[in-house]
Amino acid sequence: MNDITRQSKTLRSTLVDKIRESDSKDLLGLAGKVVDKADPTALISSIKEVGNKYYELQIVREQEQTKRAQIQKDKEVTLNKINTLREMFMTYMNRSFDERKDNFDKFFKIVDDAIEKNNMQELQMGLQSINQLAAQSPFKPIADMAMLTRTLESDQELDI
To answer: Which residues make Cβ contacts (< 8 Å) with residue 133, sequence separation at least 6?
Structure first.
């Protein structure tokens, strides 16, 4: 390794160490001290390299800021979708259970009336209806709704 290359590497590492330790106001004074000690060719080469690295840093910084902005936009879109689906789900659950409760109330009223009238056939039909309603899962339509949501989000054509 020749003296100029060795001097350039030493200068470069000294410059980088000093830059890390100093704030921007001290850089001008640091550059003046380095110029006094260095070979002009090595100094120019080092300055070009620092300039190139700074330029590369600015490009990477801009790319990363763009990526972060896109991630933030994607986050907002996803959160809006989640909130919309949550609202739809909660509305469905409220209405579904209200309807289910109303149906149970009607069937128990039929059973009460049948007992009061001593009508065994009506009692049997009322109890059978209650059993059928109780056996049905109130969550099955949610699976159908999830399938519909997936279909709507895909690019498939729907036949109506």
So the answer is: 100, 103, 104, 107
